[in-house]
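#struct-pred

JT: dropping the chains for the assembly here, can someone run the whole complex?
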Amino acid sequence: MTTDGRLARMLHVLVHMGLLGGRETSERIALMLNTNPVVVRRTLGVLREHGIVESEGGRGGGWKLTRSLDQVTVLDVQRALTKGPALTAPVSRDHPTCPVERASNSVLEKAHAAAEAHLIAKYAVTTLAQIAKDAKHKASGTTQ
Amino acid sequence: MTTDGRLARMLHVLVHMGLLGGRETSERIALMLNTNPVVVRRTLGVLREHGIVESEGGRGGGWKLTRSLDQVTVLDVQRALTKGPALTAPVSRDHPTCPVERASNSVLEKAHAAAEAHLIAKYAVTTLAQIAKDAKHKASGTTQ
DNA sequence: GATAGCGTAACTATAATTGTTGCGGAAAGG
DNA sequence: CCTTTCCGCAACAATTATAGTTACGCTATC
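RK: done, full complex below.
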């Protein structure tokens, strides 16, 4: 399975955008993410649908945060990118009527639901501003 | 991404094996999992390496649990199937030296580590015997 | 030695993100 | 208006992990 790196990438780039303040083009953002502009538009497009960023076309256009860094949580971004739970229990559906399969799935689902609650709670209290602060704290030279 | 259904499948089939008591062939197990014998051998082979099941070739051969259901936890099975953490934070590696990327990754890693601890704790205290009990409780007719 | 098992290799299928190219449209600026 | 600089989007290849399939060899029993 390929790990879904969109959340990490979006956090990364949103913090940069917030710190830079202005409007950024897909191309500049693509450089930050070491990828190409289309991928950026695709993913930022999802965040736009959730009101986290806004885009403008034409000359001087680009992407911008709609709120300040301290008003966007990791949870906001996660919710935008993923419909459904942040953690999905890997259940089986080989014999949906089999009580043993159902009991196994149920155990996994409950365990994952509990774990997800903790994950979500942590996401909910972490703002992009805090990430920015951590970054400044760590930093001592290289930026970008 | 295809969800990794091996843990759920193995729990399912191990409970069946425990309840049936005897040796089961890959083919019979494959029927339980609605798949084919090779997939079964492949995955049960991993569990064998961890001492959870044993296999015998030749006529009358097949697979059997090495311990009783109450002496195998979900964690045992999970650990056998997955090396490394049960929950991996989806980090990005676009600019490994960028403090912002590092800070974003760090937030995700810590949150996932905490969630994983809860997940593992739950896995550790859940035995296959409990799943079997749940299954009997739910059941009221259909088996398998 | 025929049969019923597992063991394994070598493919193909599947599914999701990611990467890439190409083209159309919109906004600014001369 | 017409060029430039953007985004929007469609279409397709690349990647990666599990899952499925076929085929063949080995072993133990009858």
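JT: nice. Chain B touches chain A through 61 residues (CB under 8 Å). Residues 99-125 of chain B form the longest helix (27 residues).
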